[in-house]
Amino acid sequence: MELPGALPLGELAAAFATLPVFPLFDLAYYIVSVLYLKYEPGAVEMSRRSPFASWLCAMLHCFGSYILADLLLGESPLHYFSNHSSVVLATAVWYLIFFCPMNLFYKCVSFLPMKLVFVAMKEVVRVRKIAAGVHHAHHHGWFVMMATGWVKGSGVALMSNFEQLLRGVWRPETNEILHMSFPTKASLYGTLLFTLQQTHWLPIAEANLIFFFTMFMIVCKVFMTATHSHASPFAPIEDFICPVFFGSVASGHASHHHDHHGASHDVSHPPPPPAKSKEELNEGTRKRKAKKAE
Amino acid sequence: MELPGALPLGELAAAFATLPVFPLFDLAYYIVSVLYLKYEPGAVEMSRRSPFASWLCAMLHCFGSYILADLLLGESPLHYFSNHSSVVLATAVWYLIFFCPMNLFYKCVSFLPMKLVFVAMKEVVRVRKIAAGVHHAHHHGWFVMMATGWVKGSGVALMSNFEQLLRGVWRPETNEILHMSFPTKASLYGTLLFTLQQTHWLPIAEANLIFFFTMFMIVCKVFMTATHSHASPFAPIEDFICPVFFGSVASGHASHHHDHHGASHDVSHPPPPPAKSKEELNEGTRKRKAKKAE
Amino acid sequence: MELPGALPLGELAAAFATLPVFPLFDLAYYIVSVLYLKYEPGAVEMSRRSPFASWLCAMLHCFGSYILADLLLGESPLHYFSNHSSVVLATAVWYLIFFCPMNLFYKCVSFLPMKLVFVAMKEVVRVRKIAAGVHHAHHHGWFVMMATGWVKGSGVALMSNFEQLLRGVWRPETNEILHMSFPTKASLYGTLLFTLQQTHWLPIAEANLIFFFTMFMIVCKVFMTATHSHASPFAPIEDFICPVFFGSVASGHASHHHDHHGASHDVSHPPPPPAKSKEELNEGTRKRKAKKAE
Fold first, then answer.
1. Closest Cβ–Cβ partner in A72, A175, A271 for B78
2. A248, B228, C67, C99: which has the fewest C-beta neighbours closer than 10 Å?
């Protein structure tokens, strides 16, 4: 949508959309990703005992989006690893965060003002990846476009069960699709918007959409990181729409809106046990008996 | 095998083999698949709490065969999702079965006579998929042909562990290869027959094989669904052949012939614990000590 | 590196590198692989109850390297199964080891002097696979070359969690990357050497590298098999280098140098629980609280 008075905004958005992400924004992406890996219980221990496994986990955190997108499109999951500079940069970030003498690098990057800057820069990369993913899968149709954009935005979160398995951790009771964290859910909505834009159902230029959605993501993530807030900006809309389309949402729903990185530590807020209505219990028992006999 | 007196049968089989499966037979396939998803413990709860995860499970149930076949052949696992009509139809079936007001649609399709019709139509699709899978992989050789046909016929059952993982359920002690349900085993035998036919070792026209094997599958599945029977039609032959080639089959073997969909509910019939002979126990201990030292 | 006086050695290495691995060396590879499958607890039981699952496990053990390499390069994981002779040979080995009357074949091949010959021949195949894998991925860049060579050398070990899952066993607390067995670690170092050689950073002819690395692997594996030894030949170097680059290695490190096939039986030597320093405990708690709030 190009209004004559919005030309400066259009030019700003266009310039923003073509800003090169390598090396600075990618560097911020790697820093935030490896920081979150370091927060995981046992990650530091693992880096001492099994540095190779630790490095591999860091690579999954940094390049998970590319790996998943390539898997979905039937290409080599290692395709992105041909970009030696990116891999070397991510390796350097991993090494400095885990092994820098006196933990100096870690202390610098986790200093809150610095961290907020990196978090904001990471969102720039995330939105670019969603747009690129949707664009790359353009000729495959709607569903493939949306899936590709989604995994590009969510990254390692969508393979969290298996990334944890690599670290010797196994939590099958939850996964990022069953209980979506904010970045994963935002990526899902974002990929829908970018798909609508690509198929000309949303009358907005791609650069403008990238700009506005990035601003939205930056504001949300910086706010959530700075205030240690749980609240999802989508909750009001979802709590209005979901009961209409999908029946009553259980009261425990709101407590699940927390960042993926908190999910693995959420020992004090486990997903509430499924509360079955009497009708569902009877129905389930009857059907199970029927199925068992089939 | 074309006998002059069997021309009408040959024509019937040829017409049957070219019957378009979309939309009616595919619709029946989706209905039965999503019905079985609904029977799973916690599935209704999941549809309320995490509708997206529920939809994704339904897509795995409806299109698992295509996803697995594409994975095995090194193609994009989302390739079939370019067929928008099929995905929209399956989505509509999922929505109606889980969210139709007063559960109306579910009650209609699970009314036994209706359900038997859908079950029969699903088998038409299954056999067509096996034939198409074997045909598609023709130039890759015997083993790839058989594998492709098998996964096309078995569908989501072969990835049941991971489909359950998506629902937050993890049962590693069993899987569809270790304890085959009737559809999976029938697909295995079917893919063998179709491979033999494709490589001209079985002197029968493809259309006739499709016809006869479909009739066999329809009769078996309709009978098993209507009578809630466990008995596998393969048991007599297997109980004769297997001891010859593979040694004595443990007495618990017969109890494993139940439909995949019952497997996950089979809490009262867990696979019997491995009964080791004294010789195997000694041998195992001796070898484990040797291996530990290597 | 070709010195005039080393021409005989160069010719020997060249002849060695072009020695056809099929059928004799491949046969030895299959025998050792299926032997190790038979050692697994419950494997014999599984072969009687679910012969198809047992056969599939055997195929994973024999062809796991090809499957993994093809997955990493985005090709069909069943690509190697077009080689009918290899699959039939491996199937015959599986059948004879599990079902030969009076266990005759098993007793022959596990007779220690015979077994040592087979183990040596298996190492010839392993090193060839590493070299071939690095060569095949040459145009993809360093990291893809190393990854491909590594999975070709390690084989089924790298997918051990999922191979065990097929047998109904699930041990998520360990995996081959977290606690590397000798063959996996040797394959990792080997792939590094072959990658350096391919990219001309290591001034040695490929044939000579194949020869010397194979001799090294044969000596190590034959010694470890014959003496039931745990000791890894890499331990002295690693215990010197790792503390320099990766901080202090926990004292439990040395006990993890055992062959993969012993790993699954290593019930008396579980990985020591992570010993966190007080600083790490405090840091971890503080960060988890911060992350939970994000």
1. A72
2. A248
